[in-house]
Write a structure and sequence with these properties.
The chain is an alpha+beta fold. It has a 3-stranded antiparallel β-sheet, with no helix packed on it. Strands 5-4-6 form a 3-stranded mixed β-sheet. Helix 2 packs across helix 3, helix 3 packs antiparallel against helix 4 and helix 4 packs across helix 5.
Length: 156
């Protein structure tokens, strides 16, 4: 780690603390050359592989923005979406993979979104699952009704 003040290539860790329920580490460092202190944050990298094959870093903000479109006009707050994005990130990181397909992220989103708002779930699922006919919607609605009556989660 380079010192941000004198650009020395060495630094000494003074203190380390866990952040975001163990998802990141905050380190307080000191440069041996100029004796100034600075803070760094370390997180495990998670890369999303898009359908085109392109890769990009995982972003909670992209999850929120994508789901927000399905939630427009619904009683869903930005805080609700932030919690949903955290749940999705936690589930994705729990898989242990450093690279994850964007399709898998979409499947992970469906569960918490279904619990948050069923109409937003249908909107998101219709785009994510490429609904093409009314029968596709009928199957999704029937799955929601069946799970409401027996407490189970429908097959995606």
């Amino acid at each position: 780690m380079h010192c941000p003040f004198c650009h020395n290539t060495d630094s000494r860790v003074i203190d380390s603390r866990s952040l975001d329920d163990g998802q990141a580490i905050r380190r307080r460092r000191e440069c041996p050359a100029c004796k100034r202190r600075f803070t760094t944050t370390e997180t495990a990298s998670l890369v999303v592989v898009k359908r085109s094959g392109a890769t990009e870093p995982f972003s909670r903000e992209k999850i929120i923005a994508g789901v927000w479109k399905a939630c427009q006009g619904r009683p869903v707050s930005r805080d609700d979406l932030a919690v949903l994005a955290s749940q999705v990130e936690e589930a994705v990181r729990a898989s242990g993979a450093a690279h994850i397909n964007s399709d898998e992220i979409g499947r992970v989103i469906l569960g918490p979104l279904r619990e948050l708002d069923q109409i937003a779930y249908l909107r998101f699922a219709s785009v994510y699952s490429n609904f093409e006919t009314l029968e596709d919607f009928d199957r999704a609605i029937a799955g929601l009704r069946a799970s409401d009556s027996d407490g189970a989660t429908p097959e995606e």
